Amino acid sequence: MGLLDLSEREYWAYVSERPGMFVGRPRLASLEAYVDGYVAHAIRHGGPALEGWYEWLVARRGRECNHGWNGLVRHIALPDGWESWDLPPNQESHVIKVLFELLDEFLAEQEPRHTPDSESGSAA
């Protein structure tokens, strides 16, 4: 099975296990740019584009902020705040871990729900 055969959730789980394969040195800024590039490509070519990701993060955090999705991820990962966008290594590692956890949670909620009726093909 290749990358094209993976669901969105499986794809991002794969990226989370091997981030350096996708961005070189797995730094937070590189991964954020990768997510943005992924979304831009999907929008251009009709893919799912993580539709609703920002709104989901706002709901997950419980309030909006002046940042984009990446700031919301930082707020969730570092609820006591951060001093600079250039995080110390321990905070950066934590935010990367939380980013992939949040992506997985978001995508899990987006997956179609399988019910016994939908699997058997019978209509309710």
Features:
63% helix
Describe what you observe in this structure:
The protein is 63% helix and 0% strand. It has helices at 8-17, 19-23, 28-45, 53-61, 69-77, 89-110, 116-120. The protein is globular, with a radius of gyration of 16 Å.
Give a short summary of the structure.
The protein is mainly alpha-helical. It has helices spanning 8-17, 19-23, 28-45, 53-61, 69-77, 89-110, 116-120.
Query: Nearest-angstrom radius of gyration?
Result: 16 Å
Number of helices: 7
Shape by Cα distribution: globular
Which ranges are low-confidence, i.e. pLDDT below 50, for 5 or more consecutive residues?
120-124
The overall pLDDT, averaged over residues, is 89
Reading the helices and strands in chain order gives: HHHHHHH
Structural class: mainly alpha
- Terminal CA distance reads 34 Å
Sheet with most strands: none
Write the layout of secondary structure elements.
Layout: H1 8-17, H2 19-23, H3 28-45, H4 53-61, H5 69-77, H6 89-110, H7 116-120
